[in-house]
Amino acid sequence: MKLGIVGATGMVGRIIIDILNNKQIPLNSLYLSASNKSIGKEFFFKGKKLFVIEINDLLNKKPDVVLFSAGAKISKKWATKFSEKGSVVIDNSSAWRMCTDKKLIIPEINSKILDKKDKIISNPNCSTIQLVMVLYPLHIKYSIQRVVVSTYQSVTGTGKIALNQLCEEEKGNYNCKKAYTYPIYRNILPHCDFFMKNGYTAEEIKLINETKKIINDKKINITATSVRVPVTGGHSESVNITFNNKPCINKILNILSNQKGIVVQDNVKMDIYPMPLYSHGKDEIFVGRIRKDFSIKNSINLWIVSDNLRKGAATNAIQILEYLIKKKYI
Predict the structure, then answer these.
(1) Residue-by-residue pLDDT tens, the chain, 330 positions
(2) Which of 99, 126, 139, 191 is catalytic?
């Protein structure tokens, strides 16, 4: 198999390469592409030296699969060009997620809807992935009526400039190149992505719409507030869920404990609960603080944490690739 990575030098691209280094995926060739300023950069993959090439050169090599992690603008311009050459594109951007003819995939949840005809497959937003991983099995059991989610998102979700801004401000340098209008060190910004006319940010709308699409239930009412916090290890979410049927906390703990890809960390007597500090570098979704909401019928609260660059992006994309290989769709 010939595999290409677009956006190889970015934060997600580098993690994709790192994960592939430790996987037994049968690759004849791995091609790395990035922006023009990165052309010629060296990478080592399984003991071999690779060089970053132009995206047009990658296109001419006709890879079997291409993992895109270079933003929506690049994906919109190039993804169809690759698919027309016969490549399967797994895209990490928002470019295709809400297109009715493109599938939005979390392998543990809905990989079975994929088939050989799918040439452009979308990876959900990082915040959506960790939320739906927890919501879906509970929806199957109790039927979700409403979700209220507040996210506490790492600067790594914005990219290298944001991470550098946090690090420089921590050193006392507030004149560095900025990803945010305001300082992020010792600060919290109720502002992820751009504001829309309805007062929500694009990040909040992504979370709402993508969740409904993956669960395949438009009747679920969802509202979201997304916040940027001075954290580098992962995203956290405070989630309030109202069900149509009466939930049982012990059964919920059992359901989530048996869900592939989820780790329950819930023992408040021992101060055990999920934290981004300990999710960093891990592929699992961590959930805890699971408790009844006594203010409203059939409701619970819980807390979800995940490394947004791994399961929220790179790992999920590679899991899609592994599924396609397993089913011999590529």
Answers:
(1) 999 999 999 999 999 999 999 998 989 999 999 999 999 999 999 989 999 999 999 999 999 999 999 999 999 999 999 999 999 999 999 999 999 999 999 999 999 999 999 999 999 999 999 999 999 999 999 999 999 999 999 999 999 999 999 999 999 999 999 999 999 999 999 999 999 999 999 999 999 999 999 999 999 999 999 999 999 989 999 999 999 999 999 999 999 999 999 999 999 999 999 999 999 999 999 999 999 999 999 999 999 999 999 999 999 999 999 999 999 999
(2) 126
How far is the C-alpha of 279 from the C-alpha of 49, rounded, in Å? 31
Q: Rounded to 5 degrees, what are φ and ψ at 94?
A: -85, 0
Written as one letter, the residue type at 263 is: V
CATH fold label, 2-124+313-326? Rossmann fold (3.40.50)
The alpha carbon torsion through 151, 10, 112, 300 (nearest 10 deg) reads -10
> Of 139, 192, 235, 280, which is the active-site residue?
235
Among 281, 292, 284, 146, which residue's Cα sits nearest to residue 212?
146
Same fold flag, 2-124+313-326 and 127-308: no
176 is catalytic: no
Rounded to two decimals, the pTM is: 0.96
Half-sphere exposure of 3 (CA within 13 A, CB side): 25
126 as an active site residue: the answer is: yes
Listed by start position, the domains of the chain span 2-124+313-326, 127-308
Determine the topology of domain 127-308 in CATH: Dihydrodipicolinate Reductase; domain 2 (3.30.360)
Question: Residue 252 to residues 96, 196, 302: CA-CA distances in angstroms?
Answer: 33, 36, 11
